[in-house]
Hints:
InterPro entries: Bact_response_regulator, CheY-like_superfamily, Sig_transdc_resp-reg_receiver. Helices cover 50% and strands 20% of the residues. With 123 residues, it is α/β, with parallel strands linked by helices.
Amino acid sequence: xxxCMILDASSVIRKVAKRILTSEDMAVVEAKNxxxxxxxxAAQMPDYIIVxxxxxxxxxxxxxxxLRKMDSKNEAKIICCMTQVxxxxxxxxxxxxxxxxxxxxxxxxxxxxxxxxIRKAAA
Length: 123
């Protein structure tokens, strides 16, 4: 079973994403801050990580770099979740190692569409 970590300060966003993904037979773990996410990823790197772009005062690229530097057999696919289109922020996150982007608020169709895109790219 694939595992997705959702890192978002909002419990509502985590709950919505978890409900959508668990209905698709995916295991979901939640992190409410960067330190929690790093600790969880160090223990077991998930297959996917949804990172709130607003985490770390909007500097999620530092967190993405930390996740990418971790020694793990599994290289997680990282989706950066944003509240607005910010090209400069997207470029920083992409250079840091983000694979895809998703706008909040999202619905079932949008979230699962991102997972289909990532899976197609990996195949």
